[in-house]
């Protein structure tokens, strides 16, 4: 098998041992969710950002979280969210709160002129999403959701292949999957199985990634209709534990996905074109932190006796000097810096792609609720 190596360097990562000399974007963390440990590390790694504050509903919890996650000694500790949002030294906030709390606190953050890195799924529905995005727009603050893998340089390399008419041709279909086997404690106590906290269940936690992968492959062109797969697994409180859906475009292109808390860890994408095929097996969290691979085949065929492949797929490996979550923070901080120091306008791309992801998620949920009817996407 032929292996190609693509090494990408960012002009912002000249040194990984110290922060850039220019002013750093001051980020406050609103909430001590488990995912905030990973993002806190990412902020510490990003050369253009720093953690300046942490807030929890308990001062002691916030203090313990800061100490356990390498926060700067200068980071302020708050025992409530409002105090952090009122802090004039905070440029932006990372918000890992349960989805049901996003509307209230994201809107308040925007009204407090804090740029917003918001955990996914963004909202309970697109109506709530629009209220959040409107608050960001009217207050001139940058919005981005915390979908980390799209900031990995591998994703751009994959997109280049999918958009190459000579190697991939025209897209015909996409399949995406993200599953993991949650233990009994997770399935009974985690916020993602509680209807009053994260009511989307596996559809929001895992399906969001699959939907985003499909949209990237389709250059963010929304499907015409969405049909949920029959017999999703739903817990006693009405939260989805396992589900799937098919997405249809008017020209016959189709995509499918499956997401689950009840199956072995799998995170695959297969995209099939008229000339080529792309496979990736670790698209959300790469096997290795600083390199990620995918497989491509162009005009694949069998040998003369049809006993083996005449041309095997090639493995492309993309290396990076920072993990994907730090690259996300870097891009977010860069955009905030452009607004703060150069009077730029917020980049609207991230609102658009998040909203489209939310629209498809809403359609899948609506199809389930309507007995697996086809649901048309309405922008």
From TrEMBL:
Question: Which InterPro entries does the entry mention?
Answer: Gfo/Idh/MocA-like_OxRdtase_N (IPR000683), GFO_IDH_MocA-like_dom (IPR055170), NAD(P)-bd_dom_sf (IPR036291)
What Gene3D superfamilies would the database entry show?
A: Dihydrodipicolinate Reductase, domain 2, NAD(P)-binding Rossmann-like Domain
Signal sequence span is 1-17
Q: Which residues form the Gfo/Idh/MocA-like oxidoreductase N-terminal domain?
A: 25-144
Tell me the Pfam families matching this sequence: GFO_IDH_MocA (PF01408), GFO_IDH_MocA_C3 (PF22725)
Q: Which domain of life is it from?
A: Eukaryota
Q: MF terms per GO, please?
A: nucleotide binding
User: Domain GFO/IDH/MocA-like oxidoreductase, which positions?
Assistant: 166-278
Swiss-Prot/TrEMBL keywords = Signal
Concerning its family, UniProt says: Belongs to the Gfo/Idh/MocA family.
Which protein are we looking at?
A: Oxidoreductase
Q: Which organism is it from?
A: Pisum sativum (Garden pea)
Organismal lineage: Eukaryota, Viridiplantae, Streptophyta, Embryophyta, Tracheophyta
């Amino acid at each position: 098998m032929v292996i190609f190596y693509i090494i990408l360097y960012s002009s912002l990562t000249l040194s990984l041992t110290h922060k850039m000399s220019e002013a750093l974007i001051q980020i406050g963390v609103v909430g001590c969710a488990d995912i905030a440990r990973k993002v806190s590390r990412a902020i510490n790694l990003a050369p253009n950002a720093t953690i300046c504050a942490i807030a929890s509903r308990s001062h002691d919890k916030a203090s313990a979280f800061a100490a356990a996650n390498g926060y700067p000694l200068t980071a302020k500790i708050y025992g409530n969210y409002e105090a952090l949002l009122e802090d004039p030294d905070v440029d932006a906030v990372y918000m890992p709160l349960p989805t049901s709390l996003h509307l209230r606190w994201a809107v308040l953050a925007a009204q407090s002129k804090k740029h917003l890195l918001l955990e996914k799924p963004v909202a309970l529905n697109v109506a709530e999403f629009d209220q959040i995005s409107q608050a960001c727009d009217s207050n001139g603050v940058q919005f981005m959701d915390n979908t980390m893998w799209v900031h990995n340089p591998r994703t751009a390399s994959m997109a280049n292949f999918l958009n190459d008419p000579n190697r991939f041709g025209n897209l015909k279909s996409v399949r995406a999957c993200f599953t993991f086997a949650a233990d009994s404690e997770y399935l009974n106590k985690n916020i993602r199985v509680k209807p009053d906290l994260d009511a989307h269940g596996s559809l929001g936690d895992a399906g969001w990634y699959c939907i985003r992968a499909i949209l990237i492959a389709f250059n963010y062109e929304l499907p015409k209709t969405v049909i949920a797969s029959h017999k999703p697994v739903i817990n006693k409180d009405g939260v989805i534990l396992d589900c799937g859906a098919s997405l249809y475009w008017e020209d016959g292109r189709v995509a499918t996905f499956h997401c689950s808390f009840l199956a072995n860890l799998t995170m695959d994408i297969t995209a099939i074109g008229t000339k080529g095929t792309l496979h990736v097996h670790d698209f959300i969290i790469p096997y290795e932190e600083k390199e990620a691979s995918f497989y491509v085949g162009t005009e694949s065929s069998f040998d003369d006796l049809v006993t083996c492949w005449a041309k095997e797929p090639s493995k492309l490996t993309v290396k990076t000097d920072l993990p994907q979550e730090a690259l996300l923070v870097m891009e977010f901080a860069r955009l905030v810096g452009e607004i703060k120091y150069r009077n730029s306008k917020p980049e609207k791309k991230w609102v658009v792609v998040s909203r489209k992801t939310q629209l498809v998620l809403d359609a899948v949920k609506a199809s389930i609720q309507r007995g697996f009817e086809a649901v048309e996407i309405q922008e």
